[in-house]
Each structure stands twice: as structure tokens, then as C-alpha cells.
Design goal:
The complex is a heterodimer. Chain A is α/β, with parallel strands linked by helices. Chain A has six helices and ten strands. Chain B contains ten helices and no strands. Classes of the chains: A alpha/beta, B mainly alpha.
Chain lengths: 203, 267
């Protein structure tokens, strides 16, 4: 599987203008900023879910030259609030999920046969990560992937994600609030300040 | 067979009984008397006027007048589709989609029924063309209005689901597939129900009218079957076109869900 670099070239959406950024294979870049500063919207622009200025590149492939659904399949955005539309959990997964992965995330294998209504918000969040990664994307855009989790589970999810990202060599843009989390997972940390991204020193 | 003539004083008798009904609801303070009377009055005025128009139209029997009448009916139906939406597509798209899909389906099926099946001389003979088109348009209008309303309103409410499915890399047709099916269903349900209940629960109005006017039940039944099948065709294809174009309009060329193309509902 090829390892590609994600590159943003003068992307502008909402308040943000002229965002330039490159994320290498296996690199995790954390994005932080006050609520409403446009973190999620920037991810939506990268996934091409909202009209925006500028170009996004995946290796040598331009966003605007790729059919939109094929782009999103490669540049996978996992939202903070995931949605589950079918009756059973496993109907949302085209392929079988490894029990090991479920266990690493602190989920029991039976969860796949549950009715969707039984899922807690924390379970939904972890399953959404599995669902996104199961599509085998080339890039991951994670919007607060541990927002609904307790501390122990948060660390479990971080460990699992880090391992996957390192093995698969995927570029990751990760929206995070928690300073501790950023220190644990990020290779680089960017903060949204008005219309710009400011590089923060890593501890 | 001769039709028994109805005179105005006989209608006045029926009207006076509606007034009695309105009086009763007023006495019992049920608050319906006013709208009851207004609606009854509208029926009398609107139908009397259309009676005059039809008399003139039947006497003239000219294609251009029939076509003008059909056009007026189509535009009014298009306006009605728009008025029945909670969230319209902005930029005249709802009116456009509604009118176009009704034109394509109702007009085609009506012309087909007139030329190929019924075959009056000339084919546009207003006694056949106008009532047939009226029934087609009326039902297609209901189907198209219901389907578009369901489509846009459900898309609005389920925006998070649609977008999540887009994020997973689904093409727009798949992401809105469930909602399209629901919209199609609500557009066609009234007609399917009407066909299922026809003759068992309800005697359709047109057939009843023909029988009252002296047609033999066997012939009236044949006309009714023809009309119901044509209406189903018109409603079905009209709704199909409206749902296809309407759902496409909810997405842009980059397959993004564009709910900013919908109006906000009036309070």
C-alpha cells in the first residue's frame, strides 16, 4: 500500500485564510483552538464537504481532479458525533471487524450484533473509528475522537490509533482539546489563531 | 336516458342545510361555522365560474383555447405544489421541478389516453380533454407536492446522517437513497390506497357522477378504470421525475449536501 503525503495549499474556509500545511505518512498533526474557531470546518474542507478555496493534495492527486466520493473514501473524516442509520451495528460495516481490534478498544465482540439504540455515546465514538478505518483510507481526519470517553478508555483508543497509524503510515489531522493528549499523540501541534495556524512548540 | 334537471332553488335547499349545520356548530361553540361557510361559498363561486368557462370552451372547441386552459391549470398546479412545501428549493426550483414533472407526466399521459385509447373527434375535444387533464393534474400535483416536501424536510432533519454517509465515501445517490425511497412512497401512497379501496370501500367520484348522469354502470366502470390507471401513471412518473431532479439539486457538483439551497419555513 502506498504511503502518501497530505498537503493543503492556500485553503480558505470561514475565518481561516491561506492555510498551508503538509502532513507526512505516519505523522500526526494535532489541531487546537477555541470553540468556533473553525477546526471542524477545516477538516470538512479537507474532506471536501463544504465549499472552500484552495487545493488539497494527496500525494500527486488533486482534490478537485478526483470524483468527490472517491476523494472522501481516501481522505476519511471521522466526525465527533457519529451517525448510525441502520437497525443493527454490523449493517454499517461492509467487512468483518477483527475481534482483536474490538478488544483493543475495550469493546466486546457481541457489540456488532446489537441494535443501534443500545450503543452509548462512547461506544458509538469507538465504533465510528473502526468504521472509518475499515474503509482503508489513505488519510485520517479525526474530530475529537475521544470526546465522549473516560480517561482509561481514552488512553486505550490513543494507543490503538497510534499503532495503526504507525503501521499503516497514514497522515493524520487530529482535532484535540486536551493538552495531555496532544503531548501524548502529536508529532506537531498547530493552534488556530484568528485566520492563521500557529505552530506550537512540542514539550 | 335523460338527466334530471337541477334548478338553482334545489341547490339553494342544499345550501340552506349547510347554513343550518354552521348554525348548529356555532350554537355548540365548536368554532367551525365560519370556515365551513367560507369553504361552501368558495365551492359555489369557483364551480359556477368554471362552469361558465367550460360552456364557452365547449362551444368554441378550438385547440388554442384548450391549450391555454391546460397551461393555466398547469401553472396554478405548479404554484400549489410550491405553496405546500415546508422548505422550498430556492431560486424557483420547486416551482420549476413541480411544473416540469407535472407537464411531462400529466400532459403525456392525457394526450396518450385521448389519441390512442379514447379517440374522440377531434382528439382535443374539450368535453374529454379538460376533465381528464384536471383529474391527472390534481392527483399528480398531490403526489409531487407530498414527495418533494418529504424529500426536502427529511434531508433537512437527517443532514448529519447524510453527511456521515458522504464522509464514509458513499456516492450521493446512496447517501440519500433511504430518503428518496421514503419520498417516493409518500408521493404514491394516496393513489395506491385509492386503487386498493376503489369499488370496495369507496365509489370513485367520477364514476358516481357518470352513473348519476345516466351512463350505464358497465361503461362508467371502464372509464373509471382507465382514469385511475392513467392517474397512477401520471402520478408515478411525475413523482419519479420530481424526486430525481429534486434530490440531485440537494447536492452540488462535488457531491456536497447543500441545505443552503432550501428556504427556512415560515413561522
Amino acid at each position: 500500500m502506498s504511503r502518501k503525503c497530505l498537503r493543503l495549499d492556500r485553503v480558505a474556509i470561514g475565518e481561516l485564510a491561506e492555510v498551508g500545511l503538509a502532513v507526512g505518512p505516519g505523522e500526526i498533526v494535532c489541531l487546537s483552538g477555541a470553540s468556533g474557531s473553525g477546526k471542524s470546518r477545516l477538516l470538512r474542507a479537507v474532506a471536501d464537504l463544504e465549499p472552500h478555496e484552495g487545493e488539497v493534495w494527496l500525494g500527486g492527486q488533486a482534490q478537485s481532479d478526483t470524483p468527490a466520493h472517491r476523494w472522501r473514501r481516501q481522505v476519511m473524516l471521522v466526525p465527533a458525533e457519529s451517525q448510525w442509520w441502520a437497525d443493527r451495528v454490523d449493517e454499517h460495516f461492509p467487512e468483518r471487524i477483527d475481534d482483536d481490534d474490538l478488544e483493543s478498544l475495550g469493546l466486546e465482540p457481541e457489540v456488532m450484533s446489537w441494535q443501534v439504540g443500545r450503543l452509548s455515546s462512547g461506544e458509538k465514538q469507538r465504533l465510528a473509528l473502526l468504521r472509518g478505518l475499515g474503509r482503508q483510507p489513505a488519510v485520517l481526519l479525526l474530530d475529537e475522537p475521544t470526546a465522549n470517553l473516560d480517561e482509561a478508555t481514552t488512553q486505550r483508543v490513543e494507543t490503538w490509533l497510534l499503532t495503526k497509524v504507525r503501521i499503516l503510515g497514514r497522515p493524520v489531522l487530529w482535532v484535540a482539546h486536551d493538552k495531555g493528549q496532544i503531548a501524548r499523540v502529536a508529532d506537531r501541534h498547530l493552534r488556530i489563531d484568528g485566520s492563521r495556524l500557529v505552530e506550537e512548540a512540542m514539550a | 336516458m335523460n338527466v334530471i334537471e337541477l334548478s338553482w332553488w334545489q341547490l339553494a335547499l342544499a345550501a340552506s342545510m349547510v347554513v343550518v349545520l354552521a348554525g348548529c356548530t356555532a350554537v355548540m361553540q365548536l368554532g367551525m361555522s365560519r370556515s365551513l361557510l367560507v369553504a361552501a361559498l368558495r365551492t359555489v363561486v369557483q364551480l359556477s365560474l368554471i362552469g361558465l368557462v367550460l360552456e364557452a370552451l365547449f362551444a368554441a372547441e378550438r385547440l388554442v383555447w384548450v391549450a391555454l386552459m391546460a397551461l393555466a391549470m398547469l401553472l396554478i398546479a405548479g404554484r400549489e405544489v410550491m405553496a405546500r412545501q415546508k422548505r422550498r428549493l430556492l431560486g424557483g426550483w420547486t416551482f420549476g421541478i413541480g411544473t416540469l414533472s407535472m407537464f411531462l407526466s400529466s400532459f403525456t399521459v392525457t394526450v396518450l389516453a385521448l389519441t390512442v385509447i379514447i379517440g374522440p373527434e377531434p382528439w382535443y375535444r374539450p368535453q374529454y380533454a379538460i376533465p381528464l387533464l384536471g383529474m391527472m393534474l390534481g392527483n399528480t400535483m398531490t403526489g409531487v407536492a407530498l414527495a418533494l416536501d418529504r424529500l426536502t424536510d427529511t434531508a433537512w432533519r437527517q443532514r448529519a446522517v447524510i453527511e456521515n454517509r458522504l464522509m464514509l465515501g458513499e456516492p450521493w445517490q446512496l447517501a440519500i437513497g433511504d430518503i428518496r425511497r421514503e419520498a417516493m412512497r409518500s408521493g404514491l401512497m394516496p393513489m395506491i390506497n385509492a386503487m386498493a379501496a376503489a369499488g370496495v370501500v369507496s365509489l370513485p367520484g367520477m364514476m358516481t357522477g357518470q352513473i348519476l348522469a345516466g351512463t350505464s354502470p358497465a361503461l362508467a366502470v371502464k372509464y373509471q378504470i382507465l382514469v385511475m390507471l392513467s392517474i397512477t401513471l401520471g402520478t408515478g412518473f411525475g413523482t419519479l421525475a420530481a424526486v430525481a431532479v429534486g434530490s440531485r439539486r440537494l447536492f452540488d457538483s462535488r457531491e456536497r449536501l447543500r441545505l443552503d439551497r432550501l428556504s427556512t419555513p415560515r413561522p
